[in-house]
Amino acid sequence: MPMSPKRWAVAAVPAAASLLLAAGAAPAFADGSYTIPIHQDLPVTATSKGVSNEKKCADIPSTQDGWHFVLPGNSTTFIELKVTFEPGGEKTVAVFGPPSDKHAYVASAPGAKLTAASAKVTGGSVEWFNLSHTCPASATTSPSPSVSSGAPSPSGSPSSSASASSSPSSSASPSASASSSVSPSGTPSGTPSGSPAPSGSASAPATGGTSGGGLADTGSDAPVGLIAGMAAALVGAGAFLVVRRRRAGAEG
Fold this sequence. Notes:
This protein is α+β, with helices and mostly antiparallel strands.
């Protein structure tokens, strides 16, 4: 008995629904890849409660937070991973491992929040990927020391005056003017005059005669003593002649 058109319509509805459901379960991309979300609730930091911590995440330096993501099973691998940090923004990762492409590593600033994560994967049939563990930063970046040229200036500037006054306490400038004159009898008459000048003053010898302690200047080059001696000699000679004449007269 042939099927009526009404019955054909009733039978076609479930078949079409089945085809639609089959199309929805198929991969999102023609190459067989599909997109899955992260399994953990976000946002989280590298040190959030419930997040496992390790010391090393591949080659991520210790001055940054390291994040290790992994796919469940052994038949699914990453094609592309997109993560968003605050601060830091969105990052796209296309290189995976080690040890295989089911592992992914990402670096962030210390203390950054992971606010979103999704992955494009291929193979298998998984519903999500996991945050395996984090590696919180253990070192801080120290600023480079500034090099200042020149000698450091001391906090207190000592006043060191190195001016030495070399003026001796006593300067003796003796005025040694010696007046020596030769008498006719051949006896030198020397009248040394040595009077040290007071401290710090120099006395120049007087010009035109003997200075200090000697006989008064008569205005002649011959000293008064010499003249007195000659006068005494003449007086003595006259007296001798007078006495001699008296004796001669007495005898005659």
